[in-house]
Specification:
By secondary structure, the chain is α+β, with helices and mostly antiparallel strands. The protein is 31% helix and 22% strand. The strands form 2 sheets. The protein has a 6-stranded mixed β-sheet with strand order 6-8-5-9-7-10, with helices on one face. It has a 4-stranded mixed β-sheet with strand order 1-4-2-3, with helices on one face. It starts with 14 loop residues before the first helix and ends in a 7-residue tail after the last strand.
Length: 343
């Protein structure tokens, strides 16, 4: 009688499929043009060179995920952009302190490895790394049957960067009468999707049949690395903030000294169509500003004399504009006026 042999594959884990995926990553990563990098894909640990032209190097590290935007990707069966979001959520935090991203690692946990889906995910991650001018040096893929439902997955990213100790962007540089600039977002980025999905469910909207939402909800997060590093290199920035969860108030309060305050003129904010659509669906201004970026993906604090110099480093679509200034106070962000959701 043939015995019922127990194997890892029978439990739901396919090591052979995982190995094929690792080989795919190693192959696609090695095709990147430019400076030769150490190829560590498939090894136990990743090795990277440190730049030699930084006199007082400091390491900066960030980690993040993309939240429930993953469920939008699953619903639309579109996975080639969510990897860009994953990279963006870490490197946009990293560059806030003036750090240049060096390398990125990913962690993907999934019910069952689907090579087509996984290849799309990794292509997005590599594209995000290319935009950020950093390398994908490794990661981990975990096949976890029973932990995740069929077709479900999660992902996290880890970015490491470097900055000269004397060039770190900190709130100590901020002075009274400095200007606050808004850098436009590309859309929702990767924040507030639990509320968006709840709204869609309550309204019984089929986003597969809604061309506008289908396009907007999967639109990848804008990566600001190139522009911010150009400004930092030329000493044109005092401080900056990545506008993610918590919106303008929570994120700007983190980059101003305790003895100063920020006054934001909401009338000046140029919002986007997706936020106007959300606002029409019975969401208060307070909730909008707390949950979403409302069209402002990044904020810069600058000396007023540098505004024209700064604007030339951005495309027309993402050109910064003034929304406020630094005043006397105690680390408070004061919002004046209202966003004109109709303009």
């Amino acid at each position: 009688m043939k015995k019922n042999l127990f194997t890892y594959k029978k439990s739901g884990v396919n090591i052979a499929a995982a190995d094929r995926f690792v080989n795919f990553i190693a192959d696609i990563s090695s095709k990147k043009k430019g400076d030769k990098k150490l190829n560590n894909i498939g090894s136990f640990g990743s090795i990277s060179n440190l730049p030699r032209n930084i006199k007082n190097p400091k390491i900066v590290a960030c980690t993040d995920g993309v939240g429930t935007k993953i469920e939008i990707a699953n619903l639309l069966n579109k996975y080639d952009t969510i990897g860009i979001d994953l990279v963006a959520m870490s490197v946009n935090d990293l560059v806030v302190q003036g750090a240049k991203p060096l390398f990125f690692l990913d962690y993907i946990s999934i019910n069952k490895i689907n090579l087509k889906k996984m290849k799309s995910l990794i292509k997005g991650i590599i594209k995000g790394c290319n935009i950020s001018q950093c390398s994908l040096v490794g990661g981990e893929t975990a096949e976890m049957p029973d932990t995740y439902e069929k077709g479900k997955f999660d992902m996290a990213g880890f970015a490491v960067g470097i900055v000269d100790g004397k060039k770190i962007l900190t709130k100590k540089r901020v002075r009274k009468n400095d200007l606050i600039l808004a850098v436009p977002s590309s859309g929702l980025h990767s924040n507030g999707f639990s509320l968006v999905r709840y709204l869609i469910k309550q309204k019984k909207i089929d986003i597969k049949k809604n061309h506008f939402l289908k396009k907007e909800l999967i639109k990848p997060t804008k990566i600001y690395v190139k522009e911010i590093l150009n400004l930092s290199k030329r000493n044109l920035l005092k401080s900056c903030a990545n506008i993610t969860g918590g919106g303008l108030v929570d994120n700007i309060s983190r980059i101003i000294p305790n003895k100063l305050a920020a006054e934001i003129d909401l009338n000046k904010i140029k919002t986007l169509k997706i936020f106007k659509w959300l606002k029409k669906n019975n969401i208060t201004d307070k909730e909008m500003l707390k949950t979403f970026n409302c069209g402002v993906g990044f904020c810069l604090i600058i000396n007023s004399k540098n505004i024209k110099k700064i604007q030339k480093y951005f495309s027309k679509k993402h050109r910064p504009y003034v929304i406020g200034k630094i005043t006397s106070g105690k680390n408070k962000v004061k919002l004046n006026g209202y966003i004109d959701w109709l303009k």
